[in-house]
Amino acid sequence: MSSPKNTSPPASIAEKEAPKDEANNNKDLIVELENLSKEKDSLTKALVRSNIGNAKLGGLEKDLNLSKSQYQWSLSIFYFSYVIFDLPSNIIMRRWRPSFWLGILMFFWGTVATAMAASKNFASIASARFFIGLFEAGAFGGLIAYGISQISDDRLKTWQWLFIIEGIPTIVLAVFTAWYLPNEPESAKFLTKEEREFASTRLAEDAGASHNHSWSWAQVASVFTDWKTYIFMAVYITGTSALQGVTLFLPSIVSGLGTWPTPVSQALTTPPYFLAFLVTVAVGWSSDRYFERAYHMLVTNIVALLGFLLLMFLPASNVAGNYIAACIVTVGVYANVAVKVAWFNNNFGGLTRRAVASAAIVSVGTIGGAIGGQIYYDPPKYFGGNCIAFGCMAAQTVLVIILRILLARENKRRTFLTDSQKEQEIEKYGGYDLVGDRHPSFKYVL
Description:
Oligomer: single chain
Number of strands: 0
Shape: globular
Strand content: under 5%
Number of helices: 20
CATH class of the largest domain: Mainly Alpha
Distance between the termini: 41 Å
Largest sheet: none
Helix content: over 70%
Number of domains: 2
CATH superfamily of the largest domain: MFS general substrate transporter like domains
């Protein structure tokens, strides 16, 4: 017998102002949860994903006898496995113990990253990159690469040391993750009793009891009939094309600006990422402070577009100007990522619906990484690559404007619905258990 349809709205949908104490608890809880997730994962992910760009300067392309086309495909193949495995991985994590699943992925991810040092030819480096993308489903990379380049060892090449030193910490961190990362608020040892109770309440309001791992295939299907999913995919794929192109080729771009030795080129890739880190934090704080996404993305996109124009049209003799332009581009393409991810997560309601939407958007959007690995084909100026990246960022800018207009129009439409019309919309989408962000009282974040 099917269970009766829920006829009472979840508390999270009710239009009421949260008490001051609740708002403070919410703020403190978010800070602690964000610190846990970001500090343990982001740095190793950035290092392993982008270290092949520094490895090229360390002699990887020459030592493995890679053609230009083979090197570019070794960059792009990572994203094919990432796209294929990202959604299934998120489904497994939703239905199983997240700490163990993440720990397993990180362990094998770090193992393959370290094993890349044993690559002998195109087949081995491409295979390793494929599995890196599968198991993954650079702020300080340049600085680390600079230090590694000073190692004097006839047994291993510079690029081999780079893969080993940046891969082993991930293996160690994987064990820590499986043991320490909580599967649900009730098992979060780093939270106080009050914070655990508050977190459980928030999750229950959003999508049922947090310890209930039941899977709603109706909510899964609803993601792929929602127009927002496809616009967010397009926003993600255009931005990722430019971002990953810059990430993978920044060491080569910087190296092409002057005649300095390889270690200096690797060290010079650090300031752009450090600036991007500072601006990303500032933009993220401002976006959360004002609870606004689209305009923040547009500002960072304008910065990126300016940087690409400078890289395209500044004369090659203007080394300082081109380096500053590279810094501007890096800041622009990276600073909107956190805002972009927060935006689509804000606008999908319900744990299952949000998890599937997030995985689908990121998975399909990551195809942009494969594109980014192919566009920088014309060294040392890379005019064609920068021109394509400029077009991608311009397209994303247009999509962000369109998306904001559509979301604002939908919010306005919902304010004029009568009570009977609201009930009809709720029934249209399967009742309160399935309606999620399509509830007439849900206001989309702009």
